[in-house]
Write a structure and sequence with these properties.
OB fold (Dihydrolipoamide Acetyltransferase, E2P); Rossmann fold; 5 domains; five-stranded parallel beta sheet
């Protein structure tokens, strides 16, 4: 059997093995509990659904990181595995960190989105309604792009009465954002009913101009209702949240902005049919009204009125008779009820008086008996004060006092019991 080794030696062997084997690692995960230490180092945990690993980015590399880690952020870490021997714990020594997905652009997108949302730029209360039948629409897009032709085709098919005004703008590259802002401001002075901001599909970098803050602010400040139609259905840019409406494609934006000619024709046909039915109903109603008026004229003739008045008099007489009969019956019932109530009250009162009399008689008898008993009682006074018999001596002169009399006496003899 091999001789045992120390913990330190074992940790050093593991450290050597780990750090030589995992010299370069690229790990994806979610940030948990990021801590920016006063020393300038960054500590956090990288985790997925089943596991977690500690990470550290030392001051030198941390200072180069262009963004700040937040709890729950999805990132990719580049670095190596190191082991801290005194504790026997291993970690990733991070040399660089990138947001997962599209990298720094995706992070910038999320950060701007959160900022604008917090300021209320996405609130539904700030959204303007689109006019139902727009006469003029400004299209802010590239004159050479496919989006303009798609929108013109849809407009000609859906609502050829609309006038489309193209505002040629850069939609890609570093100068695209200022160009789009100028186009939005220009559209405010063209007396248009709707502004459509449009561009075909592309990569995140291609569509980035529509994620710029200056474009978002210009769109938010627009006095004219706006539609954002950037990229394909799966693409979402900041202007989609700022605009009054979001369309998945430029063609869909035109479908949202314009009524459908065929639907309007069908609607007119429906309204015509509905109006015809209402006219027919009105004529029928007036015909019935005339018939009713004829009946009313017959009803209001002198003969009908005389007959009605006679019936009314008979009904009143009958009603008076019934009312009088009911009143007599009611009074008889009340008289009977009052009589019974009075008898019951008298009987109750008589019973209470009898009980009271018996109570008084009992009290009288009790007091009379007590009075008789008290007449036979007497108290002994010595020198004018009540005295106990045990305190008296032979030859003491005393008084015997009852309720009616007082007798003088003298003790001549004391007998002990």
């Amino acid at each position: 059997m091999n001789s045992p080794i120390s913990v330190t030696k074992l940790n050093n062997q593991i450290k050597s093995l780990l750090e030589s084997t995992f010299l370069h690692v690229r790990v994806e995960g979610e940030v948990s509990r990021p801590t920016y230490h006063s020393s300038g180092h960054l500590y956090f945990t990288l985790k997925d659904a089943d596991s977690a690993i500690s990470c550290v980015m030392f001051k030198g590399n941390n200072q180069k990181l262009p963004f700040r880690l937040e709890d729950g952020m999805h990132i990719i870490v580049f670095g190596s595995i190191s082991l801290y021997a005194p504790r026997g714990s291993y970690q990733i020594n991070c040399l660089n960190i990138e947001p997962y997905g599209s990298g720094a652009l995706a992070l910038a997108y999320e950060q701007l989105k959160k900022e604008l949302e917090a300021k209320g730029y996405f609130d539904s209360t700030n959204k303007k309604s689109l006019p139902k039948f727009p006469k003029k629409i400004a299209l802010i897009t590239s004159a050479s792009g496919a989006a303009i032709e798609d929108m013109r085709h849809v407009a000609a098919k859906r609502w050829p009465l609309v006038k489309l005004i193209l505002i040629d703008s850069l939609v890609q590259g570093k100068e695209a954002a200022p160009s789009i802002v100028r186009s939005i401001k220009k559209a405010q002075n063209l007396s248009v009913d709707i502004i459509i901001l449009a561009r075909g599909g592309g990569s995140v970098e291609d569509l980035w101009a529509f994620n710029e803050k200056e474009v978002a602010l210009a769109l938010f400040e627009s006095k004219v209702p706006t539609i954002s139609a950037i990229g394909h259905e799966i693409d979402y840019v900041i202007t989609d949240f700022i605009a009054d409406k979001r369309a998945p494609t430029p063609s869909a934006a035109m479908e949202i902005a314009l009524p459908d000619l065929n639907e309007q024709k069908m609607s007119i046909d429906y309204l015509s049919e509905s109006l015809l039915k209402k006219v027919e109903w009105k004529i029928g109603f007036l015909f019935e009204l005339i018939k009713q008026m004829q009946k009313t004229l017959i009803y209001k003739s002198p003969k009908s009125k005389l007959k009605y008045k006679l019936e009314e008099i008979l009904n009143i007489a009958k009603s008076l008779k019934n009312s009088f009969t009911q009143r007599v019956q009611k009074e008889e019932f009340l008289l009977k009820e009052h009589s019974e109530t009075l008898q019951n009250s008298l009987r109750k009162k008589l019973y209470e008086k009898e009980l009271n009399l018996k109570s008084l008689m009992s009290a009288y008898e009790a007091k009379s008996t007590m009075f008789k008993i008290k007449e036979s009682f007497a108290q002994i006074l010595y020198e004018g004060k009540p005295v106990n018999l045990n305190e008296l001596k032979v030859k003491d002169e005393i008084e015997i006092e009852t309720l009616k009399r007082t007798l003088g006496a003298k003790i001549v003899k004391i007998k002990e019991n």
